[in-house]
């Protein structure tokens, strides 16, 4: 440890300094010189301890942890994985007796037999002590004088506060009149946007402002330097700063004169005696700096609250304290009266608005069951036969309607009933298929119309009532179903909500459990484990296609399901799997709703999904809904479930007891719009009121985000001017993918064609690749939504046939396009291994990390 000698010498010198400082403090406090022996007798213990403290502190601070551990190891200590504090304690213990410095011997050498040196030390220490004591006395005197002066300043301000404000008010009024007469008004602009030239808008008009604070936001046209967060920035100047500086300058000068004229004479004398200079205006400004700042803020705040008309009237009245005081009191009384009137008017408007909101919205969303004579609840897990039993009740009825959450399920029931010899029509918004002699209808839940009567109505996936955007369709269907018997199908989580909604109605409750148990595999899934009957689940179209391509390249025959896939194509993909033409299916969570397939094992390739806002872990209900598709009675009597990671956590989600849903979604209805139109005629006002309306307990409002976004595109245009409010909202509410730019543009072009009385623009047909075909399918679907809404059914038939052809093309392209598909780095295009976890290669990731490192180093 070659540092020890240097540290030791430094500690010894530091110890000597501290001992001499102690001696000086001791000697200086004595009126007569004590002997050296007297000093030692009183300060021996302190002198003896100084070395130990200085030495241990320096050696601990200067020696590195590594050197300490090395030294302790040489002494026989085990220092591996030992806390830093313990290392320091052991090291200090070992160092305590290392070559002690004999402080007493060193001090004795200086003073024991050298009375002259001791006396000289005393004279210097005593002189320093007395000088310091005198300085402290003077500082106390100065402090007392400052306190007396500041106290007098406060008393002067308190006495003349009203008079000062009257002066400030009169000054501000004269400045305001001058500015209104002589200054130019500029267009509002961001103060920091100096690159933008200010536009003149003419002269100021007093009628544009109520209080002074509103005028102070106007720009002067000049540029000034302002402080933000301690830094200076150049920006366009507002009158706020002009008037603030005027008031601050006026108060500083006025108060300075006022104080100098009214301070007691003895304070001037005491100040000059203590400071050896006279009390001047400059000194007074320093003494009243904080008080002046508070006064500035108070007066400027009061000026901002002044009515513009009061200040303009005041400017031409010569200043007389009594006259101006009377005017101020009158103006304050008038202002308080106006404020009271404004508050009363605001309260009246608020109460009127509350009554309006209650009339428009409040009465519509109180649960009340209508018309249906009997309700049959089918509650249970996925794949338990709930839908089958409900449909049996509908099939045997003279008339019936099935309400599906998805167009695909509506198509399935439509096909099923017609295959079984029960004529059934179809209505989904994008197509209408009328079957001769049909008394049954398969429909999406959004197509429900409460005035149509059926013997039996079946409402599927009732737990969707909680969905923030679509849930109200289920609420409306359940509570307003016009039928002798209503069958409601839902998960266990929906049970309490359904019973609450139905209240005292005649209810039959059927609860279902799986005949086929689910078994979670203990080992993490690998692609080499793929077997016939597996359904591999991931949560994006891209991942589905990549996974299917990988499986095909490894010799598996594959079906695919994802949300953007046309329902007809999805149906064909499912049929191939059901018939055994494919051995494996790769799907998004679209598989979890209504599809009963011969699945041996559900494999979760991912445990989280992007929900439109953020990436999050799957919920218990999502895991159950998907995993429940595993197993098929007579074929796979145990449903297998596998995960690629976090098996314990995902198994817990699967086995977790269903939490009951406690709220349902609400959305605008025709009745709401009819009531709204008694007050307003524009959708902008409607959306504002919808935001203000407080959703009743147990409900949550639909955000209407997509409708608002579309509305902003056509707000103030001919479309809004020429269409009735309910018609316009109906077009905004059309169910299409509003995140697709091409579809939004198509919607807008079609809207203009409608109001201009022209033929609807035909959808753009693109077929260069799979993605374009799927977008074309959606574009035709949107076109059909318009055609059926406008009752152009003949035209719709052509586009339905064309859409079927597009879905056939999608089906065929799925067979070919994914054969050579591979994972590629999104940055450089380099081919990635299938197992690569990220979307960029290691080289691109390293390059990006280096760039970030170099950026932060700069």
From TrEMBL:
Superkingdom per UniProt: Bacteria
Gene Ontology terms, MF aspect: helicase activity
Domain Helicase C-terminal: 522-672
CDD domains, alphabetized: SF2_C_suv3 (cd18805)
Pfam families on file: DEXQc_Suv3, Helicase_C
Annotated keywords: ATP-binding, Coiled coil, Helicase, Hydrolase, Nucleotide-binding
PROSITE patterns named among the record's database cross-references: HELICASE_ATP_BIND_1, HELICASE_CTER
Protein name: RNA helicase
């Amino acid at each position: 440890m070659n540092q020890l000698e240097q540290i030791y010498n430094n500690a010894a010198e530091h110890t000597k300094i501290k001992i001499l400082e102690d001696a000086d403090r001791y000697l200086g406090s004595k009126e007569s010189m004590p002997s050296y022996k007297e000093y030692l007798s009183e300060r021996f213990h302190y002198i003896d301890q100084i070395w130990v403290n200085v030495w241990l502190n320096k050696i601990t601070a200067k020696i590195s942890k590594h050197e300490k551990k090395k030294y302790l190891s040489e002494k026989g200590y085990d220092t591996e994985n030992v806390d830093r504090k313990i290392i320091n304690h052991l090291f200090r213990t070992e160092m305590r007796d290392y070559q002690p410095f004999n402080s007493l011997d060193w001090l004795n050498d200086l003073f024991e037999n050298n009375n002259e040196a001791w006396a000289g030390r005393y004279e210097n220490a005593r002189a320093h002590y007395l000088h310091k004591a005198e300085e402290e006395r003077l500082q106390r005197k100065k402090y007392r004088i400052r306190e007396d002066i500041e106290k007098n300043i406060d008393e002067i301000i308190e006495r003349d506060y009203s008079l000062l404000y009257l002066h400030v008010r009169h000054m501000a009024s004269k400045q305001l009149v001058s500015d209104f007469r002589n200054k130019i008004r500029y267009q509002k602009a961001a103060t920091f946007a100096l690159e933008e030239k200010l536009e003149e808008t003419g002269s100021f008009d007093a009628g544009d402002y109520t209080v002074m604070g509103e005028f102070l936001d106007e720009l002067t046209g000049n540029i000034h330097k302002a402080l933000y967060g301690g830094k200076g920035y150049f920006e366009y100047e507002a009158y706020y700063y002009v008037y603030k500086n005027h008031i601050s300058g006026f108060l500083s000068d006025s108060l300075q004169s006022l104080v100098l004229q009214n301070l007691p004479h003895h304070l001037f004398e005491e100040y000059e005696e203590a400071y050896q200079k006279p009390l001047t205006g400059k000194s007074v400004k320093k003494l009243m700096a904080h008080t002046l700042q508070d006064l500035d803020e108070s007066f400027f705040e009061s000026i901002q609250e002044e009515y513009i008309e009061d200040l303009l009237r005041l400017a031409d009245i010569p200043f007389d304290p009594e006259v101006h005081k009377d005017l101020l009191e009158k103006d304050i009384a008038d202002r308080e009266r106006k404020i009271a009137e404004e508050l009363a008017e605001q309260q009246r408007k608020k109460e009127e608005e509350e009554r309006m909101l209650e009339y428009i919205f409040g009465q519509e969303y109180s649960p009340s069951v209508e018309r249906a004579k009997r309700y049959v609840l089918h509650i249970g897990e996925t794949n338990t036969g709930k839908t089958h039993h409900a449909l049996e009740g509908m099939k045997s009825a003279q008339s019936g309607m099935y309400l599906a959450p998805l167009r695909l399920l509506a198509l399935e029931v439509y096909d099923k009933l017609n295959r079984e010899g029960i004529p059934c029509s179809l209505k989904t918004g994008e197509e209408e298929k009328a079957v001769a002699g049909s008394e049954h209808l398969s429909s999406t839940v959004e197509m429900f119309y409460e005035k149509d009567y059926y013997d039996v109505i079946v409402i599927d996936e009732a737990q969707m009532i909680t969905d923030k955007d679509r849930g109200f369709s289920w609420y409306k269907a359940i509570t307003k179903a016009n039928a002798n018997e209503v069958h409601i199908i839902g998960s266990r989580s929906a049970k309490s909500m359904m019973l609450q909604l139905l209240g005292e109605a005649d209810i039959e409750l059927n609860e279902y459990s799986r005949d086929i148990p689910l078994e979670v595999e203990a080992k993490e899934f690998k692609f080499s484990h793929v077997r016939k009957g597996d359904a591999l689940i991931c949560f994006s179209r891209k991942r589905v296609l990549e996974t299917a391509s990988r499986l095909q390249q490894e010799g598996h025959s594959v079906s695919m399901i994802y949300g953007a896939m046309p329902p007809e194509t999805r149906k064909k993909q499912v049929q191939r799997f059901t018939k055994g033409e494919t051995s494996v299916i790769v799907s998004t969570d679209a598989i979890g709703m209504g599809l009963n397939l011969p699945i041996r094992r559900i494999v979760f390739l991912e445990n989280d999904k992007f929900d439109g806002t953020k990436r999050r872990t799957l919920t218990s209900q999502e895991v159950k809904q998907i995993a429940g598709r595993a197993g098929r009675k007579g074929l796979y009597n145990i449903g297998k479930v596998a995960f690629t990671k976090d098996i314990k956590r995902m198994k817990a989600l699967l086995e977790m007891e269903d939490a009951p849903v406690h709220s349902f979604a609400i959305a605008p209805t025709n009745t709401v719009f009819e009531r709204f139109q008694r007050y307003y005629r524009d959708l902008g006002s409607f959306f504002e009121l919808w935001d203000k309306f407080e959703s009743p307990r147990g409900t949550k409002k639909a955000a209407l985000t997509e409708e608002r976004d579309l509305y902003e595109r056509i707000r103030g245009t001919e479309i809004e001017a020429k269409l009735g409010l309910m018609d316009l909202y109906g077009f905004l509410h059309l169910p299409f993918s509003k995140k697709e730019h091409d579809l939004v543009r198509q919607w807008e072009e079609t809207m203009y064609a409608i109001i201009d009385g022209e033929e609807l623009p035909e959808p753009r047909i693109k077929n260069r690749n799979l993605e374009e075909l799927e977008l074309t399918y959606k574009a035709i679907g949107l076109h059909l939504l318009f055609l059926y809404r406008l009752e152009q059914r003949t035209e719709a038939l052509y586009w339905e046939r064309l859409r079927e052809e597009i879905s056939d093309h999608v089906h065929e392209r799925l067979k070919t396009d994914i054969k050579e598909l591979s994972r590629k780095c999104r940055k450089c295009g380099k081919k990635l291994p299938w197992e690569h976890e990220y979307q960029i290669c290691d080289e691109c990731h390293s390059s990006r990390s280096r760039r970030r490192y170099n950026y932060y180093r700069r």
